[in-house]
Inverse folding.
């Protein structure tokens, strides 16, 4: 194992969650990566089941919102 690899933490999950460019460009991949990271955190014992459920719910809501928000932005600024 490489020494420069560090296990994920909640800050890493939050940074990924807030990565709006990634979320807009590839909502499915963004969603899956959020779930994978939450699963890793749970598996490492970094979070408990309740925290995992909260992260999963936040990821699901963000994923459900992505089409509507992307369409609204396109309508507001078709040149973007």
């Amino acid at each position: 194992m490489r020494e420069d690899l560090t296990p994920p933490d909640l800050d890493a999950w939050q940074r990924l969650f807030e990565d709006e460019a990634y979320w807009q460009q590839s909502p499915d991949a963004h969603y899956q990566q959020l779930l994978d990271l939450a699963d890793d955190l749970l598996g490492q014992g970094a979070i408990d089941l309740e925290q995992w459920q909260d992260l999963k719910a936040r990821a699901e809501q963000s994923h459900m919102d992505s089409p509507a928000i992307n369409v609204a932005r396109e309508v507001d600024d078709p040149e973007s």
Q: What stands out?
A: Helices lie at 10-17, 20-25, 27-44, 49-76. The CA atoms of residues 45 and 60 lie 22 Å apart.
